[in-house]
Amino acid sequence: MNPQEKIQQLTEELRKHNYNYYVLDNPKISDYEFDMKLKELQKLEEKYPKLQDENSPTKRVGGAITKNFPTVKHEHRMYSLSNSYSEEDLLDWEKRILKVAEQEVEYVCELKYDGASISLTYQNGKFSQAVTRGDGIQGDEVTANVKTIKSVPLQLKGENHPETFHIRGEIVLPYEGFAKLNAERIENGEEPYANPRNTASGSLKLQDSSTTAKRPLDCLLYSIVGEKVGLATQFESLEKARKWGFKVPPESKLVHNMNEVLAFIEYWNKHRHDLPYETDGVVVKVNNLQLQEELGFTAKSPRWAMAYKFKAEEASTVLKQITYQVGRTGAITPVANLEAVQLAGTSVKRASLHNADQIEKLDIREGDTVYVEKGGEIIPKITGVDFTKRTPDSKPTTYIKNCPECGSELIRNEGEALHYCPNTNACKPQIIGRIQHYISRKALDIEGLGSETVALLVNEQLINSYADLYELKKEAILPLERMAEKSAENLINGIEASKKVPFERVLFGLGIRYVGETVAKKLAKHYKKINALAEASFEDLIQVDEIGDRIAESVVAFFEDEKNRTIIQRLQDYGLQLQISEEELAGQTNVLEGKTFVISGVFEKVSRSELKKLIEKNGGKNTSSISKKTDYLVTGENMGPAKLKKAEDLEVSLLSENEFLEMVNFK
Ligand SMILES: NC(=O)c1ccc[n+]([C@@H]2O[C@H](COP(=O)([O-])OP(=O)(O)OC[C@H]3O[C@@H](n4cnc5c(N)ncnc54)[C@H](O)[C@@H]3O)[C@@H](O)[C@H]2O)c1
Ligand SMILES: [Zn+2]
């Protein structure tokens, strides 16, 4: 291939990856691989300047705009950052700065948060618009979605805000929320998201802001832009932003020379995993804004800032064996057992392979040398195979056909990514998993009974379903390993106490596929009694707010199963709460359910549907639980929905849309 062809090939490849990454939020290769390809192209372009294309991926900010949102031109361009990977790169950069500055320069060191770039606009102290970086020149207007993020202030604190200004930052998804979201997706047979960054970016581009509101996004701000803002340094602007109520990362630091910059980098290279969200480097910025202006920009990035990228957290190791795990719903997950390797400060021996398609796509085989990457997930994942190290006797992986625990033939439903063991009632990990779920904190929360004890009880054939828990006798469990008089007593008491747990949590505890916490709440509220739910038809179920085909089908199937009906009858006989409380039945509590939002103020003459519309338009959710009577309202920021009062008890005022927005504080 001649250089011209090579440049063309790399350009096309990078464009495709940019599209996957920025538009579809679904990268197909790792960032490290991407960066290496980009570097290769950069080198070639430097060597053959004549072959350079002005639209080359090396010269453009990678993003793009989608058609789903209004396009907005940025008043001030949004650049990317130049990258450096070594101390020398940074020292070279400093030399270029000193030529202009002619004296020692102060820097601000910030962490490079790995999320989606955002520009927020404020007018007269009020939030007015949020726009993605897009291609740097124009981006997508995603105001409604950004409004659902708690840390974005809608009204600024303090006074003397510039009439109009923009503030830039990063929308991030903390590890914890990312892991939870992916666990749900896997459970639902959907493909897990690749990393927190693309998930954050994808969350901003959702059509329905109530879905965005469910994601625990955060917004970290790092630079104020606009004319007549009257600031002299970057550090000062961070402090000002903080005073106005923005979430400005506390790690940012003012330093006085390059040595201090290097110390900052060294420190965070070690400690970055203590932070709740992903960072991929440090951004060093010239502190003096006047000097920043003198230094200016290249086609792609400012000359006054430099990103130092942490080493990619990838390692290679040998895949010894693929094993398969059976979850409580019968879902099978393939697991890679690896030769131990150090990655991001921990020793890694196992990695998730997700599902059969993933194995096939990457062509992963036992004995292969594989790349392991630690993204936002707790369990690292395999990103690829080093084919140069594959031995000639290697054989393609054939996915198992039978359950590794009970031998039943596996099934895979159309459109789903996972295989299932259909032997729900007799496959041991499913029995154990179901009971473990039943006793878990958000379900029956049985004190004195842990996951290990459940496994022990099942293995000793003392229980076979959660209903059996209520037949357990102290004498029977005392002989068990590590069981003393006191702990046996606690266990029995804990089981007894679970009879008081409210219906919605019992319903969640039953472990009906796709009936998570929120759905259980919805169903409990709607049907009020388990018998009514058990009799509900598919058509009936899908009428309930937020209940789709998949959930409805699963609920119907659960209650059609004679074994489940018997178990529920038993629970009823033991005295569990299988209907909502007496007060609720009598209709005395009439609430804006859960902690979805808190409204301060009082509405008058607003119909329920008008209120619903306003709330939904602004990213609210759970509107179905707004009281039918509009005079049930919340007052005061800290009053939970339980403290609702009737409107007539309150002072009555207002309502315009803007006033409404000021009062609503989405949780
Ligand atoms: N895997 C793939 O297919 C694929 C494709 C395209 C791009 N990528 C990856 O995307 C990255 C390139 O994206 P990019 O153009 O956004 O550049 P970048 O992520 O390297 O850096 C620029 C961005 O950093 C962010 N940032 C975070 N903290 C900051 C701070 N304190 N101050 C200023 N900015 C801060 C800003 O959003 C800014 O736009 C590379 O890491 C590349 O590997 C991967
Ligand atoms: Zn099985």
Explain what this protein looks like in three dimensions.
The chain is globular and about 85 Å long. 34% of the residues are buried. The chain has 667 residues and is an alpha+beta fold. It starts with a helix and ends with a strand. Helices cover 35% and strands 17% of the residues. The strands form six sheets. Strands 2-11-10-3-9 form a five-stranded mixed sheet. Strands 14-13-12-15-16 form a five-stranded antiparallel sheet, with no helix packed on it. The C terminus is likely disordered. α1 runs antiparallel to α2 and α12 packs across α13. The chain has five domains: 49 residues, Helix hairpin bin (Helix Hairpins), CATH 1.10.287; 239 residues, D-amino Acid Aminotransferase, Chain A, domain 1 (2-Layer Sandwich); 76 residues, OB fold (Dihydrolipoamide Acetyltransferase, E2P), CATH 2.40.50; 157 residues, 5' to 3' exonuclease, C-terminal subdomain (DNA polymerase, domain 1, Orthogonal Bundle), CATH 1.10.150.20; 70 residues, no CATH class. The site of nicotinamide-adenine-dinucleotide has 24 residues, from α1, α2 and β3.
Strand order of the largest sheet: 2-11-10-3-9
Structural class: alpha+beta
Question: Biggest sheet, open or closed, and with what strands and sense?
Answer: 5 strands, mixed
How would you name the CATH homologous superfamily of the largest domain? DNA ligase/mRNA capping enzyme
Subunit organisation of the chains: single chain
Task: Count the DSSP helices.
Answer: 24
**CATH T-level fold name of the largest domain:** D-amino Acid Aminotransferase, Chain A, domain 1
How many structural domains are formed by the residues? 5
Provide the residue-averaged pLDDT: 84
Helix percentage range: 25-40%
Give the amount of beta strand, in percent: 15-25%
Radius of gyration: 29 Å
Instruction: Using the alpha-carbon principal axes, give the shape.
Output: globular
DSSP summary, beta strand count: 20
Distance between the termini: 57 Å
By CATH reckoning, the class of the largest domain would read Alpha Beta
